[in-house]
Amino acid sequence: MTALTNGLIYLSRMEEEKNGMPMIDFPLSDVTEEVAHEALVKEELKRCADEIASVDLSMQTIRDCLKNNFQESESVV
Q: What pLDDT score does 3 carry?
């Protein structure tokens, strides 16, 4: 709440100074919605990163098994 109040005071001072910065209209509801979904997006990104890491580990294991199997078969011949 303090940050919001400080932000409003800052904007008010900017408007009083008329320092040439253009003020634009934007829908506050869109910003609020983006912030509300931020936690969900972070959780989904973490889940995706975990899945990618799991698949990567599996692929490395399979690659190592195939490589070792191929090397063993060459040494037998």
A: 84
Contact 21, 14 (CB under 8 A): yes
pTM: 0.44
Q: How far, in Å, CA of 28 to CA of 31, rounded?
A: 5
First to last CA, the chain: 75
The string of DSSP letters for 6-55 reads: HHHHHHHHHHHHT-SPPP----HHHHHHHHHHHHHHHHHHHHHHHHHHHH
Query: In this structure, what token pair is assigned to residue 47?
Result: 């889940």
Q: Which string of b and e fits 12-35 if b means at least 16 CB within 10 Å?
A: eeeeeeeeeeeeeeeeeeeeeeee
Please tell me the predicted confidence (pLDDT) of residue 66.
92
